[in-house]
Amino acid sequence: MNQDLAYTSLKDDLTRRGFAVTTLAAGFALAVQPVSAQTVTTDTKDLEAGEVKIPTPDGQIPAYRAMPAKGGPFPVILVVQEIFGVHEHIKDICRRLAKLGYLAIAPELYARQGDVSKMTDFGKIISEVVSKVPDAQVMSDLDATVAWVKASGKGDTSRLGVTGFCWGGRIVWLYAAHNKDVKAGVAWYGRLADKSDKLHPKQPIDVVDSLKAPVLGLYGGADQGIPVESVERMQAALKKAGKPSEIVLYPETPHGFHADYRPSYRKDKAEDGWKRLLEWFKKNGVA
């Protein structure tokens, strides 16, 4: 099935299904409570920040957008959610980027499948919602988000970047292979090699030859869910393909090291990764 037919089939399926999430969650997802005392909080001073609605072929999805209150059009960064959806931490990431002059936007990519913000069982989050989110749907929703930003006149989509965390880290690699307009991506500890299925037919290691933009991967050497072996395989594949992407592997560092609201947070690695992110975007025309 070609891409156009896949999207048509997907659209028909989604039209029948409807939307489970029509507005973003407030605060942090229940599954990550209690929130750590070291949580970083970014204010909205001099920003325009809040929920917006993104039109899609089958309706609309909520998203969080933050940008400077004055000026524009601004360079654009898509922020792809963690496994817990667009909760407070992802919103804060958008505000941090907006403070630096970006229009940052995080669409709720589980909107049709379920509201994970109110779920406490990690296993059920995976089995009942996340596993049912098709990659084709995610690509289409990110495309719709870019189109909405462009139409708003506030974002300069010729300077388009994408970053994502955990579940979203994997999506960064896929989207960099999907959208020719992406200038650069930064993937935080997203899976690189995994079992494929009908809804998730390809993994990042399968799309190396198709990458249309350089991706910076930020990974932990002590990540229990992403073996170092898979990171090394990805590094070798990128080198063989002659792609300008890079992967930084932080020794003795766990999964979720940028998540300042969780015990996995590693301040020094998170700050180093953030610095690298900003340099990567600037170097590759997202500034």
Give me the strand/helix succession: HEEEHEHHEHEEHEH
Output the CATH class name. Alpha Beta
Query: Quick check: average pLDDT?
Result: 93
What is the global morphology?
globular
The level of helicity is 25-40%
Radius of gyration: 18 Å
Which stretches of 5+ consecutive residues score pLDDT under 50? none
Secondary structure: number of strands: 8
Which strand order does the major sheet show? 1-2-4-3-5-6-7-8
Termini Cα gap: 37 Å
User: So, CATH architecture?
Assistant: 3-Layer(aba) Sandwich
CATH homology group: Alpha/Beta hydrolase fold, catalytic domain
Beta-strand percentage range:
15-25%
Q: Largest sheet at a glance?
A: 8 strands, mixed
Structural class by sheet pairing and helices: alpha/beta
CATH topology: Rossmann fold
Question: What does this protein look like?
Answer:
The protein has 7 helices and 8 strands. It is α/β, with parallel strands linked by helices and 287 residues long. Strand 1 and strand 2 form a beta hairpin. Helix 4 packs across helix 5. The longest helix has 18 residues.
